[in-house]
Write a structure and sequence with these properties.
5-stranded mixed beta sheet, about 625 residues, mainly beta
C-alpha cells in the first residue's frame, strides 16, 4: 500500500527526497517546479533570480524560514540565487499556513513561501551528520557539512557551506537573423554560508526556546546583458547578511502563544569599474539594519470546532547609503491580525482581517509618509469527501505591497511618485487524491482572477543594478493551474512516479484604452508554462528525468515582434545510487546532466543561460 499523502491543493510542496534528486543550484530552480511560477533568471549559477506567482511579483509573497520572516526592505524581495538548498528539508508555496508559528506580517501578504531547514530542527534525543561534495562544469564546486546533536532538554545544530564557480560557459544568442557565439565572462562567484541554532526546553512536555543565527558572504562578478560589439564588463557585487532570530511557544490550556524576535543586518557593495563619468567608475555601498518583535496567539474551543487567533508585530528598518536622492529613509511598520476558523466535519472556514500601519521618516525623524493598509481574507473549503478524498473551495483576499527603498530612492532608478501596489485575489479550486492498492492518484485545478492596481514593474537595462521602475495603473490577471501526480509501487523493490504541472496566465494592462499597451501581456509573464518529472527507483537506485517548458513572452509591455522572446524547453536527467554501510553510515553518489539537449535560451532578454553541463555529487549521512 502507498502511505497517506497530504492533499495537493493544500499547498505545493517539495520534500528533501525530491530536492536531492533534482540537485538544484538554489531555491530559484526549485520554484520552477511549482504551477503558477514565472521565473526571472539573470544567468546561471550565482545569477540573480526573482519570481512572480500567479502574476503577482515576489514582493507579494512572504518568505518564511523556520517560522521567521526574511524579507528585505531595501530591495523589497530576496535574490533566490542566494538561498542554497543543501540544508533545506522542504519548500512550499501557496496560501499561508495558519499555524501559530506563521508571523503576522506573512498573514498580511498574498502568498507564502515556506522553507524548513536542517538547523531549524527541534528533534530531541538524536544525533546526525550530513555532508556533501559536488563538482560540475564551468569551475563549479560545492562543499557542505551539517551536524545535529540533541539530548532530552537541550540541542544544537551547526552547518557550513562553501561554493564557487568560474561561470565561463559558451553560448549562442540569436539577434534577428544573426547568430552570435561567445563565452560568458565576468561571471566568477564565491559564496560562504554558515549558521548555528540552539534549542532548550524546561521539561519534555514544553515547547523549546529556539535561537538561530545565520550568515551569508557572497563575492561575485556581474556578467550583465550580452551586447553585440561591446564586451566591456567590470561590474562587481559583494553581499553580507547576518540574521539572528529567537522564539518561544507556550501552551496554556486551549491557548497557544508564540513570542518571537528577529534582527537582520544586510550589507552590499557595488562597483562598476567602467562607468561613464568623470571618475571613470561608480561605487555604491548600502547598509541596512532591521528588527522585528511580535507575538501571536491561537485559542481552541473544545473539540477544536472553532479557533480564534490574533497577532501583533512591529518592525523597524533604516537604510544607510550614499546613493539615494533624498535623506536616508527609515520605515516603521505595525502589523495586526485578528480572525477565526471553523473546523466542521464537512467544511473549513477561515476569515480574518489584517491591518498595517506604516510610517516612513527621514534621517532626522520627520515623518513624510503615513499609510493605513487593510488586508481582509476569506477562505472556504470542503473537507476530504469519500474514497477519492475530493476537496474544493474558494478564496478571496486583498493585500497591499509597498514600494521598496530602491524603487523609491535609488539614484538612477528611484521613482518617488510610485504608489503602493494593491491586489484583489479571487480563486476557485478543486482536486482529488486517492490511494488504490499500489497506486496513488492526485489531481488539482485552480482558477484565479487577480485585479492589480498600481502594479509596480521593474525592467532591467544594461546591467543588474540599473533598472526602470514604473506603475501600471490597472492590470487584470486571469489564470489556470493544473497538476497531476501518479505514483505506483510496482513491487517491494520497484517504484515509479510522474508529476505534471501546467499554468496559463493572461495578465494584461487595462489602464487606458487609448494606450498602445492596452490589452497587452505584462512583460516577462509567459502565457504557458509546464513541467513534467518522471522517476523510477529500485531500492536505493534512482533515475529521474525532469523537463520544463517556458512559453513565449515579451521583454516590454508593448507586445510587438521586436520584444518577443521565443519559448524553450530544458531537459535534465539524474542517476543516483545509495549504499548503507555498517553503523548506519549512508552514502549516495549522483550523476546529473542539465540541459541535455543543449538548448540556447534566456529568461530575460540578453541574459544568456548555460548550455549542457554536468554535476557529480557525493552525499554522506549518519
Amino acid at each position: 500500500m502507498i502511505p497517506y499523502i497530504p492533499h495537493p491543493i493544500e499547498s505545493q510542496t517539495l520534500q528533501r527526497n525530491d530536492i536531492q534528486e533534482l540537485q538544484p543550484e538554489d531555491i530559484g530552480q526549485l520554484l520552477q517546479k511549482f504551477a503558477g511560477v514565472s521565473m526571472k533568471s539573470y544567468g546561471g549559477l550565482g545569477g540573480m533570480k526573482t519570481f512572480s506567482f500567479r502574476s503577482l511579483g515576489s514582493q507579494h509573497t512572504a518568505v518564511v524560514m523556520d517560522g521567521f520572516s526574511i524579507q528585505n526592505t531595501q530591495s523589497g524581495q530576496l535574490n533566490l540565487g542566494q538561498i542554497h538548498t543543501s540544508n533545506i528539508e522542504s519548500v512550499s508555496l501557496g496560501k499561508q499556513s495558519n499555524h501559530v508559528r506563521t508571523p503576522v506580517s506573512s498573514l498580511n501578504m498574498a502568498n507564502e513561501m515556506g522553507l524548513s531547514t536542517f538547523e531549524g530542527w527541534t528533534v530531541f534525543n538524536k544525533k546526525q551528520v550530513r555532508a556533501s561534495i559536488k563538482a560540475g562544469s564551468f569551475g563549479q564546486s560545492d562543499n557542505y557539512l551539517g551536524y545535529h546533536f540533541a539530548k532530552k532538554k537541550f540541542g544544537f545544530t551547526i552547518h557550513g557551506k562553501y561554493r564557487q564557480a568560474k561561470g565561463d560557459y559558451p553560448f549562442t544568442m540569436k539577434v534577428g537573423d544573426f547568430e552570435y557565439q561567445g563565452v560568458q565572462s565576468n561571471n566568477e562567484l564565491q559564496e560562504l554560508y554558515s549558521g548555528v541554532s540552539f534549542f532548550l526546553r524546561p521539561n519534555e512536555m514544553k515547547q523549546p526556546v529556539r535561537i538561530i543565527y545565520r550568515n551569508t558572504f557572497v563575492d561575485q562578478e556581474l556578467p550583465g546583458a550580452v551586447i553585440l560589439y561591446n564586451n566591456s564588463k567590470g561590474q562587481f557585487l559583494n553581499t553580507q547578511k547576518h540574521n539572528l532570530a529567537a522564539d518561544w511557544t507556550h501552551k496554556w490550556g486551549f491557548t497557544n502563544i508564540r513570542y518571537y524576535a528577529v534582527y537582520q543586518y544586510d550589507e552590499q557593495h557595488y562597483l562598476d569599474s567602467n562607468y561613464f563619468n568623470s571618475a571613470g567608475s561608480l561605487k555604491r555601498d548600502f547598509y541596512q539594519n532591521s528588527g522585528q518583535l511580535g507575538w501571536r496567539f491561537e485559542r481552541h474551543t473544545i473539540a477544536n470546532l472553532i479557533s480564534f487567533y490574533g497577532a501583533l508585530d512591529q518592525q523597524h528598518a533604516p537604510l544607510t547609503s550614499g546613493a539615494l536622492t533624498e535623506p536616508l529613509p527609515q520605515r516603521y511598520s505595525t502589523h495586526n491580525n485578528l480572525g477565526f476558523r471553523i473546523n466542521e466535519k464537512k467544511y473549513n472556514l477561515d476569515m480574518r482581517i489584517g491591518y498595517q500601519l506604516v510610517a516612513e521618516s527621514k534621517i532626522n525623524g520627520e515623518v513624510f509618509k503615513l499609510r493605513n493598509l487593510w488586508a481582509p481574507m476569506l477562505n472556504f473549503e470542503t473537507a476530504e469527501l469519500g474514497k477519492r478524498r475530493w476537496k474544493s473551495g474558494f478564496s478571496t483576499s486583498t493585500t497591499v505591497r509597498l514600494p521598496s527603498f530602491n524603487e523609491l530612492y535609488y539614484a538612477q532608478v528611484g521613482n518617488q511618485d510610485l504608489e503602493p501596489e494593491k491586489a484583489r485575489q479571487f480563486s476557485l479550486f478543486t482536486g482529488i487524491a486517492r490511494n488504490h492498492r499500489s497506486w496513488f492518484f492526485a489531481s488539482k485545478l485552480v482558477t484565479y482572477y487577480n485585479q492589480i492596481e498600481n502594479k509596480i514593474l521593474a525592467i532591467p537595462t544594461k546591467n543588474l543594478f540599473v533598472w526602470s521602475i514604473q506603475n501600471i495603473d490597472m492590470v487584470n490577471a486571469l489564470g489556470v493551474d493544473a497538476g497531476q501526480v501518479i505514483k505506483n509501487r510496482i513491487n517491494t523493490k520497484w517504484n515509479t512516479e510522474v508529476q505534471l504541472n501546467y499554468s496559463f496566465q493572461y495578465s494584461v494592462d487595462v489602464t487606458d484604452k487609448n494606450s498602445p499597451t492596452y490589452g497587452h501581456q505584462i512583460a516577462y509573464i509567459p502565457y504557458h508554462t509546464a513541467n513534467v518529472d518522471w522517476s523510477l527507483s529500485r531500492k536505493k537506485t534512482n533515475l529521474r528525468v525532469s523537463s520544463s517548458f517556458i512559453g513565449g513572452r515579451y521583454s516590454l509591455n508593448e507586445n510587438v515582434s521586436n520584444n518577443y522572446l521565443d519559448p524553450f524547453v530544458v531537459l535534465d536527467a539524474s542517476f543516483s545510487h545509495g549504499i548503507e554501510i555498517k553503523y548506519k553510515h549512508k552514502v549516495n553518489l549522483q550523476f546529473q546532466v542539465k540541459n541535455i539537449i543543449g538548448q540556447n535560451y534566456t529568461y530575460i532578454r540578453s541574459f544568456v543561460m548555460p548550455g549542457r553541463n554536468l554535476l557529480i555529487s557525493l552525499n554522506y549521512e549518519l
